[in-house]
Specification:
The protein is an alpha+beta fold and about 180 residues long. The protein contains 4 helices and 9 strands. It starts with a strand and ends with a helix.
Length: about 180
């Protein structure tokens, strides 16, 4: 599937919760597989449904609250309807990038650890604790579900430069295809 890039306005939409009765539907299972494949082919470690141009999302194209991630040493994982319920006061500085904002990186502050309530792909409600790099990845993806990009914290000048870099990347990608 194709990725959605800035400045596409869909990236600013609040994602729709997944109705838990939909968990076992083939369309959601297909979305999970495609989302994972798209993330891997794009070289990412995390991806929110809003970043993928996929025809079977809730509402015929509205993004749903699904995060796919794969951290070093783990296989693919999904968080459905994730919500941060606890975060540490300890802060870590991290350099973030984003599949929807290719070639752009930005150093920012994130909570060093978080606890997330979510639904599993088996339909079970649970919580998962994340530390360090994993906490950064999940916070970044939950921001996507809320219509936020990591570039939102940049100055107007840096945002402008970021958009120019993305436009240049997309032009070069188009020439190669």
């Amino acid at each position: 599937q194709d990725l959605i890039y800035v400045p596409d306005n869909i990236l600013q939409i609040h994602s729709v919760p997944v109705d838990t009765s939909e968990i076992f539907r083939p369309s959601l299972k297909s979305q999970l597989r495609c989302q994972y494949a798209t993330m891997r082919l794009s070289g990412g470690v995390g991806m929110a449904a809003v970043q993928m141009d996929y025809p079977f999302l809730v509402g015929g194209g509205y993004p749903n609250q699904v995060i796919t991630y794969e951290l070093p040493g783990s296989g693919p994982r999904w968080l459905i309807n994730p919500t941060i319920i606890e975060q540490s006061e300890e802060i870590q500085l991290c350099e973030e990038g984003c599949l929807s904002v290719p070639t752009v990186f930005y150093t920012r502050e994130r909570a060093a650890s978080i606890t997330v309530a979510h639904v599993t792909t088996e339909g079970e409600s649970t919580t998962t604790h994340f530390d360090g790099f994993a906490a950064v990845v999940i916070q970044h993806e939950i921001d996507h579900l809320e219509g936020k990009l990591f570039t939102d914290d940049m100055s107007i000048l840096k945002k402008g430069r970021a958009r120019l870099k993305v436009a240049k990347y997309l032009r070069s990608k188009k020439r190669l295809s």
